[in-house]
Amino acid sequence: MERVIDPFDQTELxxxxxxxxxxxxxxxxxxxxxxxxxxxxxxEHGHRxxxxxxxxxxxxxxxxxxxxxxxxxxxxxHDVWIANVSVKSRWESPAVRQVWNEEGRGLALELFEEIWWxxxxxxxHWDDGLGVYG
Length: 134
Hints:
- By secondary structure, this protein is an alpha+beta fold.
- It has helices spanning 21-32, 61-64, 68-84, 94-115; strands at residues 3-5, 12-14, 37-41, 51-53, 57-58, 119-123, 131-133.
- It folds into 2 domains: 1-35, no CATH class; 39-133, no CATH class.
- The longest helix has 22 residues, at 94-115.
C-alpha cells in the first residue's frame, strides 16, 4: 500500500487504493479538525441497520450518504442476522454464521470505501476479532 508523509506533523499515512496522496493528506487535516466520525459496523436487536455512531448512537444509511446499492446489501445482510439470532439464542448453523461473517467483512470494507472521506469504520460485527478501517 502506498504511503505519504503528512506535511503538518510528518506522520506517515497509508493511502487507500481508492484514494490519492493529496486526498489522504486532506482527510488527515479533516481528522485534526474533528470532522471524521467513528462508525461501528455491528448488528444489534432493536435497530434496523448495522450502523452506529460512537457518540450519536444508531444511524440510518442516509445519515452517511451510503449508495442505494450498498444500502440494499446491508439490508439483506442484517436481515440474515435477524432471522438467525434472537436475544436468547445464538446461531444454530455454523455454516450460515461463517458465510454471514465473511460477507460482513467485505461489506465493512465497502462501507469504509464509501464513507472514507467522513468516517472511520470499526468492524465489530463478528465474534472472532476486531477490524478497524481508517
